[in-house]
Amino acid sequence: MVTGARGWARLGPLPGLRAWAAAALPAARRHIAAGTEAWRCGGTWLAGVDALPNGAGGGIAGAALPQALLSCLPWQPATWHRAQLSTLRPGYPQPWDGESDMAFRFRQVRDAAHVDGLLPVGPDRRRMLREAHAFILGLPLTEADPGAAPLVVWEGSQDIIRRAFTAALAPHPPETWGDIDLTEPYHAARRQSFATCPRVLLPARPGEALLLHRMILHGMAPWAEGAAAAPEGRIIAYFRPEFDRVADWLEAA
């Protein structure tokens, strides 16, 4: 897999990818201006789930996802979902209504580190595999300083996470995995990752791509004092296509 033992790769600049980012940015600006979603973290983060109106092939406004990028991906979805638009502003993070002091502290100190696809379920917010992503692909749309709340990963943590989830899920049929409580093994694997894996900041510019292993522990760093970005903030479009077979979440490379 192109991410290798590190669990991540910065690709590019890639031919055609800056043109894709330039074509996507006006749609991102329109989404932000529409105000259809509430800003989180004291007005410093807009999550923008399924916000980018890209087509089923991933292209937007006449700009296709370039072959130079597609050839690097470990798996090709038949249909691309609408990308998330993650927009950060100076001051991130700030306290968020409804967020506990412990959760806010975790966002400040541990970058709200998480593994995608494990959703909080029920009143006790137990972590369950509800989205079997194949990979995480981040495509920056705006220029931003390296300290402008960059993506953060714990390098190599995907191996720790995989071992923990294999032990928890392998005894069960894949069709039941979405109902298995993974909270304890997830938290234990996360603690081990914090203790043993290097924390790596991954700033990137339009024309580049950030490719992450689906199980890598990752988050967003606080916005550094003095860091600058485009007027809209630091915007990254994220694709997280899901496997056709949930079993591939453990079995695939």
What does this structure look like?
- By secondary structure, the chain is of the alpha+beta class.
- It is built from six helices and eleven strands.
- It has a six-stranded antiparallel β-sheet with strand order 1-9-6-11-3-2, covered by helices on one side.
- A hairpin with a 4-residue loop joins strand 4 and strand 5.
- Helix 4 packs antiparallel against helix 5.
- The radius of gyration is 18 Å and the shape is globular.
- The mean pLDDT is 97.
Notable features of this structure?
253 residues, three-stranded antiparallel β-sheet, 19% strand, six-stranded antiparallel β-sheet
Offer a concise description of the structure.
The protein has six helices and eleven strands. With 253 residues, the chain is of the alpha+beta class.
The count of β-strands is 11
Helix content: 10-25%
Report how far apart the termini are: 6 Å
Query: Major β-sheet, in short?
Result: 6 strands, antiparallel
Strand order of the largest sheet: 1-9-6-11-3-2
- What is the helix/strand order? EHEHEHEEEEHHEEEEH
Radius of gyration: 18 Å
Number of helices: 6
Strand percentage, roughly? 15-25%
- Low-confidence stretches are none
Structural class: alpha+beta
Please tell me the overall pLDDT. Answer: 97
Assign an overall shape: globular
Write the layout of secondary structure elements.
Blueprint: E1 8-11, H1 17-34, E2 45-46, H2 67-70, E3 84-88, H3 101-110, E4 118-121, E5 126-129, E6 135-140, E7 151-154, H4 157-169, H5 183-196, E8 199-202, E9 209-213, E10 218-220, E11 234-239, H6 248-251
Antiparallel strand pairs: 1-9, 2-3, 3-11, 4-5, 6-9, 6-11, 7-8, 7-10
Helix pairs in contact: 4-5
